[in-house]
Write a structure and sequence with these properties.
Elements (H helix, E strand, L loop, with lengths): L2 H13 L3 H6 L1 E8 L7 E2 L1 H13 L4 E10 L3 E11 L13 E13 L2 E9 L3 H5 L10 E2 L2 E2 L1 E7 L8 E8 L3 H17 L6 E9 L2 E8 L2 H4 L5 H10 L7 E7 L8 E3 L6 E3 L21
Parallel strand pairs: 1-6
Antiparallel strand pairs: 1-2, 3-4, 4-5, 5-6, 7-8, 9-11, 10-12, 10-13, 11-12, 14-15
């Protein structure tokens, strides 16, 4: 079998969206690598990586726009990957948007199978096409760990009387994905709960945390059930995260909220709609406390 035939079998397996066929098209011990794999994958790890893409893009396909043999039983293939995001991508909810990603693979072949694949593409294209932010930053600078956060608020400007706190230490990317999936379920339930004000979640290095604000401690107790209870059961189960702590904080002192006057530019205390600055100007509506 020629190198081009081995390459065709490999891409046909991708277009059949069959992780098993993809693995079968690669020699035992063969490798796959692209900008998102964090290094070479081999064996079933290649199939698992492909399965993750098929889960996020069930109609994923590759169109070969240029292909040629290279010395040493090699193949260079220029392609366009297309798909519709109708499944979760790295814990994010599906967007329903379509993507089109140009790229290139350089393959070596042996005995009618692919021996190695090195893929090249701009890893920021798909997130941008899905309306996601692409943040370029180091993972850490000395003792400072950098990461990302999510904030959700419904415009409730009530002064919080209680804060729910969860702080976790994760061991691996698998822990991160599991915590994100559970957090996503909790976030979907929070807006319907009485007294919910807002929530912020964050991930930096091995630390993941959630802080939610509530009108009363009694309102916060609604978390004793539903998706949050599922998350607690997983936390105390046999294999999730390294450790962590949960708790309830009651503000000892929470000052009056400030808002800047649009007329004189002064930062003024506000007790609600219709408040005035010291110059007598009506202030904008107050921002949420949290």
């Amino acid at each position: 079998m020629s190198a081009l035939n081995a390459s065709k079998r490999y891409f046909d397996a991708w277009n059949a969206r069959s992780p098993e066929a993809i693995v079968a098209a690669v020699v035992p011990g063969g490798t796959y690598e692209d900008p998102l794999t964090g290094g070479p994958l081999t064996g079933n790890a290649i199939g698992q990586y492909a399965a993750g893409l098929f889960s996020a893009f069930p109609d994923l396909s590759f169109s070969i726009v240029g292909e040629s043999e290279t010395p040493g039983n090699g193949v260079s293939a220029q392609w366009i990957m297309r798909g519709t995001n109708t499944g979760s991508l790295q814990g994010a909810p599906p967007t329903g948007l379509s993507v089109e990603l140009p790229g290139a693979d350089f393959l070596t072949t042996k005995d009618g199978l692919v021996e190695s694949i090195k893929g090249y593409f701009d890893s920021a294209v798909i997130p941008r096409q899905l309306g996601m932010q692409v943040i370029v930053q180091p993972a850490a600078i000395g003792p400072v760990q950098l990461g990302t956060s999510v904030y959700m608020a419904l415009g409730n400007t009530t002064r919080p009387a209680a804060m729910g706190i969860t702080s976790l230490r994760v061991r691996s990317d698998a822990d991160v994905e599991r915590v994100r999936a559970l957090s996503q379920q909790i976030l979907q339930e929070l807006p319907s709960m009485k007294g919910f004000i807002s929530v912020v979640t964050g991930h930096a290095g091995s630390h993941m945390f959630t802080i939610s604000a509530w009108e009363s401690i009694e309102d916060l107790r609604q978390l004793h059930g539903g998706a949050h209870q599922d998350a607690m059961d997983a936390f105390y189960g046999p294999d999730m995260v390294q450790g962590g702590v949960t708790g309830v904080w009651v503000p000892r002192r929470l000052n009056v909220a400030g808002v800047r006057c649009t007329e004189c530019g002064e930062m003024s205390a506000t007790e609600g709609p219709g408040s005035q600055c010291r110059a007598g100007h009506t202030l904008p509506d107050p921002t949420p406390f949290w």
